[in-house]
Fold ABC transporter ATP-binding protein.
Amino acid sequence: MSAQGSCSRSEVAFEVRGLSKVYRSGAGDVHALRSVDLDILAGETLVLLGPSGSGKSTLLNILGGLDRASSGSARFHGFELASASEVELTRYRRRSVGFIFQFFNLVPSLTARENVALITEIAADPMKPEEALARVGLGDRMDHFPSQLSGGQQQRVAVARAIAKRPELLLCDEPTGSLDSESGVQVLEAIADVTREVGATTMIVSHNTGIAAMADRVIRCRDGAIQRIETNATRATPREMSW
Ligand SMILES: Nc1ncnc2c1ncn2[C@@H]1O[C@H](COP(=O)(O)OP(=O)(O)OP(=O)(O)O)[C@@H](O)[C@H]1O
C-alpha cells in the first residue's frame, strides 16, 4: 500500500510504516494486516470502519502494545513498538494508553470507584477516581457495583478508568457495540468530552458508520489494508449523529 495516510501538518503522534501481521495456523496463514502506512496526528480522533475481519482490531491491538506486528514499524512519538522489550511495552501501555473494549471488562466485586482506582494506583500522574467518574457523569454512582449499573453506566466507568491516567492515546474497540443507542450516545459524549480535556489521540473502531461523523478522519479498512481515508470538514457531536 502507498503512504496514502501520510501527513505533514501538525505533530505526528504515530508513524506507522509497512505494518503487517500474519497469524500462522495449521489451516493456513491469515494476513490480518498488509503493509499499512499511516500517520496519526497528536490529538486527533480517528474512526476505523470496515467489514468484519478487515484488521481493525489487529491494528488497534498492535498500536496499543497488546500484540506485535510480524513486520514493519510503528513509532509513537519516536518510541518504536516493533523492537521494544516486553518491559518497555508494559510501561508504554501503563503510562500512555487507555483502552475501552466492547464488554466493559470491569471487576464485578469492586465498586465503580475501586475499578478506576485499580488503574490510578499504577499510573504516573492520574486523576483521582472521583474526578474521572464525575467527568463521565457518574459522580452519584461511585460506590455502586457493576451489577447495580446499566450497560451504558458500566461502559462510562470503563471510560473513566481509561482516561483517569490522562493517556496520550485512547483506543476504543467497539465501545458502543453492546449498548442501546441512547446509552451509546452518552458513552461517545463521555469519550469526546474527556479526550478533548486530556488532549488524547483517539482511535475508535466501529461497525456503526454513523459514528464516522464525530471523527477528524475516517479510516476505511478492507482485507488488512487501508482502502480510503476521509477528512471531515466539521465534526458532529455524538448527539447530532444518526445511527
Ligand atoms: N489470534 C488470532 N489468530 C488467528 N487469526 C486471527 C487472530 N486474531 C485475528 N485473526 C484474524 O485476523 C483477521 C483480522 O481480524 P480483526 O479482528 O483484526 O478484524 P476486525 O476488522 O477487527 O473484525 P471485527 O470487526 O469482526 O472485530 C481476521 O481474519 C481474523 O480471523
